[in-house]
Every structure is written in structure tokens, then in C-alpha cells.
Design brief:
By secondary structure, the chain is mainly α. It contains 4 helices and no strands. The chain has a domain of 26 residues. The longest helix has 13 residues.
């Protein structure tokens, strides 16, 4: 798959609106209802980090489509990195 096709696929994936839950009535009422506190907190957290919000499969699909890692890396120095001795 060439880069242009990959970008188009990612755009379609990210721009597709999520389904409106059954029984939500009118769109304005659905939006006015807001989010539960736990979902609101999770959304704010991911807005700050810039990492995608979704389950493991969703994030892995994005990583595969983008060809890069989106998950939070393990903290600390990476294995094989040179240590600087302080004397």
C-alpha cells in the first residue's frame, strides 16, 4: 500500500462519526447529555498526551496503519544505551 492510500484510509477511519446510541432521540439532546465523569476524565487525559483513546485493538490498528508506535513507552533508559559515568 502506498503512502497516499494509507493516508486516505487513516482519514476515513478518523473522520467516520461514531454511531449514535439507540434511544438517544434527537442529536441536540444526545450532545446536551454530556459524558459520564470517567469518560470525560479519560478524554481529557488523552487530549493532553496526544495518544489515541480506544481499546488495545483500535490502537494497534492505528499503529499498523500509520507504521509507528502510539502506545506509551516504558519509562527509564532504553536497553543498550550507554551509561555516562560521573566521577
Amino acid at each position: 500500500m502506498d503512502d497516499r492510500a494509507r493516508v486516505q484510509d487513516i482519514f476515513l477511519l478518523l473522520s467516520s462519526p461514531p454511531p449514535i446510541p439507540a434511544g438517544s432521540g434527537k442529536w441536540r439532546g444526545f450532545l446536551a447529555a454530556g459524558l459520564p465523569a470517567d469518560q470525560h476524565t479519560a478524554l481529557q487525559s488523552h487530549e493532553r498526551t496526544g495518544r489515541p483513546l480506544g481499546d488495545e485493538g483500535f490502537v494497534e490498528g492505528l499503529e499498523s496503519a500509520l507504521g509507528r508506535s502510539l502506545k506509551k513507552p516504558k519509562p527509564g533508559p532504553k536497553k543498550g544505551s550507554a551509561e555516562i559515568a560521573v566521577r
